[in-house]
Amino acid sequence: MLREHAKMLNTWYLALDALFGDILTCTSEAARYSTAAARFIRATADDYHRTRQDFEHVVPVWTLALLTCGAEADYPLPTRGVDLAMQTLTTEP
Question: At 86, is the secondary structure helix, strand, or coil?
């Protein structure tokens, strides 16, 4: 399952990389992509990176859970930020 997911991430990366070249509108650095294309690329790249980070977090968590005490292992939650006012770690981006 993990290998298949890693293959999917690799396929996604290659497709995203090819997309950068496929939707170029001109060669000028200032206007390489239309506004819609740039928005789409950013959103798709963000989705890819978020998915990859989640995968890279889940693999060791799952492995450590198997090694320690099964699926209910006490392993720290993924954190994405710090809420200084509330003095807590957050899981929201």
Answer: coil
